[in-house]
Write a structure and sequence with these properties.
Layout (H helix, E strand, L loop, with lengths): L2 H15 L27 E7 L7 H19 L8 E7 L4 H14 L3 E6 L5 H11 L3 E3 L14 E3 L4 H14 L4 E7 L2 H4 L2 H10 L3 E8 L7 H9 L4 E5 L2 H13 L6 E3 L6 H11 L1 H7 E6 L6 H12 L15 H20 L4 H4 L13 E4 L2 H9 L3 E4 L18 E5 L9 E6 L8
Parallel strand pairs: 1-2, 1-3, 3-4, 4-5, 6-7, 6-8, 8-9, 9-10, 11-12
Antiparallel strand pairs: 10-13, 13-14
Amino acid sequence: MSFKHRSGRLAAPIAFALVVGMVTMGTGVLPSSAGTKKIPPHAKVIEGLVTAFTGAESFIGNVLSAGVYPAAASINAAGGILGHQMGVVTVDTRGDPADALPLVERFLGSQSNLVGITGSDGATMVQLAPLFERAGLPMNSQAGSSAFDFNRLKYFWRDVPPDITNGVAMALWAKKQGYTKVALVFGTDATAQGDLPGILAAAKLLHLTIVDNVGLTPDQPSYQSQAATLLADNPQVIMTEEDATTAGTFFGDLAQLGTVPPIMGDSGTVLSTWMSAVSSGIGVSNFEKLVTSVTAQAAASNQADSAYHTAIRKVASKLVAPATQWFNDAYSEACYDGVIIQALAMQAAKSVQPSVYNNFIPKVTTPGRGVKTVYTFAEGKAALAKGLKIDYVGTVGNIVYNKYHNYYGNQEAISWPTGVFANEKTDYVITAKALGNA
């Protein structure tokens, strides 16, 4: 039986039936229109990496760094953008809007030669996106918040599938495996909560029963009472996301009670730190047998992968070791592609001014007749110099934006038969079309 065809009929109405918000423009006044400042010839241009490096969501900074720094290295190795080398400046949002807003406003008012933004974390992007919009700075975002599903911001571009599709994919994977009783265990932080709307709506349409919905306050010393309550409800599978420390504690408490149901992590759990914590909590053999993850599908290996891996090795000292752990991280890859796309748009526009090159972003990512496919910044730069139109196909494949500046890729369910990060086995693929991409 081919579940792929059945899921295509179920997932589309699920995705489109969900009620989601729309990002609106902020009403505050920025201290500077950073994106309209004239950039001197041959001056270093700056990519702002704005995300959480401390706090409960600090892991996001590590993931995005593994995309931005290698991208800048690839760009600079190819001679830079129109005579400009690229640098990276970071801003720590601390995963808290109250901290992030004044820090980012100060950054935008003081930083010269900003050409783009990468970020942010799920806890602050809704508040920060209007600031970048008013500053006229293109931003490639890895925030999955549903607030951007029907985005109207001119400068916002999302390079990963929305969280809602990850949640729908998890429900479909549970249905395929024959589960009917599901427990939800998610951290109470904004990033961890992102998939829940998709899971809940899909579960209802797929007739899955939610027997427990546990919100874990991050980094508590014990979750024994929550673990005992969950086990009493007899779930067949636990769907989950939380930070590594919280995960290690909760699932360790669960294992001490004697029973560990199958565990299904979302895309936010496909991290070596999370895997290590859960493996320590429940034991390696249990991890290998019981844990699966649903995440954005990595594209087939291509020349973009080779360029990315080379660049990672060049900037390994700036990344969390081992650097090789980022080779197949879908979010780091998307981040890398987003910066390369910005740079190619500048080359195509013959301008590093954000207000000019922003409109060229879809012009370097859309396939068509007479359009040359390129896989690296160097290849795209050379083709544009010859007057050719290009379509950049990156490490995550071809990022083609819809009218809301969103990209929908495939999702996949993976298992870890050896318990080793980046040594996964693909069990099931849920296509972007099946998830309701219009």
